[in-house]
Fold this protein.
Amino acid sequence: MAGPAIQNGAVLTRQNRIIAVGPWQELRGQAEEIIDYPDQVLLPPLVNAHIHLELSHLDHLAGRDKGQPFLDWLETMLPERERLGAVGPHVLEAMRTTMREQWRQGVIALADIGNTRLNLQLTDSFPGFLLPFVEYLGLTRKSLVPALKKLGREEGDTACTPHAPYSTHPELIKALKDRAREMDALFPIHVAEPPAERELIGQGRGELADFLRGRGFYEDVFSGVDSQGSVQYLHKLGVLDSRTLLVHCVHIDAEELDLIGKTGSRICLCPGSNRFLQVGQAPVAEMLKQGIRPALGTDSAASNPRLSIWREMRILAESYPDVAFEDIVAMATKDGASALGLDQWTGSLVPGRRAAFLTVTLPQPPGNEGAVYEYLVHTGDDCQVCWAGEEREMTWPA
């Protein structure tokens, strides 16, 4: 993904690092051992830039073929999570199962959001990069003080992040961003997912406000902010920069896209979850025109029938036929690694990166480079994917 595809190419590795990439005929003389992958594509591993592992035991909620409207889903998910329990051995085992499946699919990095802290126990259980974030919620002034005290007691290396503008007090959002800046940590936040969020942020009313008010979680902190959307709102709070990852960005306008570009903020798209929750489609073509390179995420098993970055690529292609297949594959690899700050380790096959990459079997020789990208995107979950490089004989840790 760092340049044109190389026909009959080779990747030279040594001590778990890529040493060189180029035509096979040029590199074969430098190899101590040769592993041949006939009729296969070598490509960087995938990156899942947004997932909620702790909701894996609620995967039955995404079993509906037609999906469920966002607020109806919340009304279903919250009591079901309480009924089944948010923590416990069954939750941890479901999380581990999801991690194993992500690795099997070729995912090397997971940015995981959780408010139970179970993800902090699993960082050594994933062979790739598991980036755990502790999520904070609370929109009312009453919830703000204990949340700030709790934040002050966090371990120095624990990354913390807010849930969303509609669910987190602005002072808490700013405090969380200040802490993230001190740590030089990534700052993921759900942004502009349901359409009602824009009405809440801009006018302080609507069905999302009614939902929060009905649960006793609402307080009008948006009056006088003078923002028409979540991105503008976060910009006024001073939290947009190159380490901020805006997840979803379905309902944003041209002015907000311009703000994202100017601040260097990153975007993570979750098309599978957006489709299931019927929230709409993000303006992906406009993002690319402005030079904004989104990452891809699956969101949770409770809101997505299949946690697969391959499937996310296919849904993108179905929803945005004018977006190039090469751009879609880049979102799943290079752009995801860059968004998470892992691009010095993975995301592209270039010297210095970790010697972990994938092989995908092609059913027939491709006619050209474009046909390779089209196959990778459209075949989706049906791709025959294996780990190559230093990962080819790796066993899953106990």
Remarks:
- The chain has one domain: 46-339.
- The mean pLDDT is 93.
- The longest strand covers residues 107-114.
- The CA atoms of residues 2 and 92 lie 37 Å apart.
